[in-house]
Amino acid sequence: MNDRSRNRHVGLSIVIPIHNSSMVLARTIERWLDYLTHGHAEIILVENGSTDLTWALAQELARDSAHVTFQLAQSEKGMGNALRRGIELSRGDLVLLTADDLPFDFTDVEGARELDPRPPIVIGSKAHPGSRINRQAHRHLYTFGYRVFRRALLGSRVGDSQGTIIADGEWLRRYAPFLDEPGFLFTTQLIFAAELQGLPIAEVPVVLSVDHAPKPSTVRFSDAWDMGIGLLRLRRTRRAMNRQLEPGPEAVA
C-alpha cells in the first residue's frame, strides 16, 4: 500500500484468511477487482500457516488498482487468528469477513446493501429461508444440530453464526481484541458478543456459487465434537464478556 492509498477514505475492508489457497486465490482476487469499480475498498489477505505457495502468490497478486488497495499480513495458524489480525489492520467503515473461495459470489454484499437501515451486524446466512444452498443431507443435519446446541448453550437466536459477516468497522475493531477463539468458532464468538451487547443483527439470503455445489462434505465426527466442546467453552466466558462489552449503537445508517 502506498502513502497516497493509505490516506484515502475506505468504505469497505474485505478480510480474507488464506491457508493453502493457491488453487483459488488468483480467481478470487480477479473477481473482487472486477466487482469493486466504485468508491474505495481494501482487501486484506492474512496467510496463516500455509504449506504451499500461498504467501508468495499473495505477494504477487496484491497490486493496487484505482478502487482497491491491498494489505498483506501473516498470523498464527487458525481462521480466528487470521480474521482477528485482519480486523486489526482494517480501516473501512464496514468490514466483510469472508472466505478465500468467494462461496456466495456477491449475494451477501448485495443483500446487505439493500437493507435500510442497515444494522451493525449482517450475516450472509445459509439458514435464511431465501438462501439457495445445495448440500448433502448429512451436512444439513450437522448444521441444524449445531444451531440447536448453540441456542441451548449460548441463547443465540441467529440462524447461522458461521456465514460471511459484514460489520460496523468501528465496533469490530474496538471489540476484536476480546475475541480469543483461534479457529472456526471465531465468528460464533463474534455473534455471541454482539448478542450479549444487544446489537441488532440481520441475516440476508445467499446463493452458493456454482463452483461450490455439489461438493463432498469434509465434516467429520471429530469436528462435531470439537464444536460442542467449543460452545461449552464460550458459555463459560459469558460473564467475562459481559464485563468487557458496553451497550452498542442501535443501528448504523
Write up this protein.
Helix content is 40%, strand content 16%. The chain has 253 residues and is an alpha/beta fold. It has one domain: Spore Coat Polysaccharide Biosynthesis Protein SpsA, Chain A (Alpha-Beta Complex). A seven-stranded mixed β-sheet has the order 3-2-1-4-6-5-7, sandwiched between helices.
The proportion of residues forming helix, as a percent range, comes to: 25-40%
Total strand count, please?
7
CATH topology: Spore Coat Polysaccharide Biosynthesis Protein SpsA, Chain A
Q: What's the overall geometry?
A: globular
SSE-based structural type: alpha/beta
Strand order of the largest sheet: 3-2-1-4-6-5-7
- Amino-to-carboxy terminus distance: 29 Å
By CATH, the architecture is named Alpha-Beta Complex
By CATH, the superfamily comes out as Spore Coat Polysaccharide Biosynthesis Protein SpsA, Chain A
CATH class: Alpha Beta
- Major β-sheet profile: 7 strands, mixed
Care to give the gist of this entry?
The chain has ten helices and seven strands.
Q: What are its keywords?
A:
globular, 253 residues, 7-stranded mixed beta sheet, 40% helix, Spore Coat Polysaccharide Biosynthesis Protein SpsA, Chain A, alpha/beta, 7 strands
Question: What is the fold's blueprint, element by element?
Answer:
Blueprint: H1 3-6, E1 12-18, H2 25-35, E2 41-47, H3 54-61, E3 68-74, H4 79-89, E4 94-97, H5 107-113, E5 121-125, H6 137-154, E6 164-168, H7 169-175, H8 186-197, E7 201-205, H9 221-236, H10 238-244
Parallel strand pairs: 1-2, 1-4, 2-3, 5-7
Antiparallel strand pairs: 4-6, 5-6
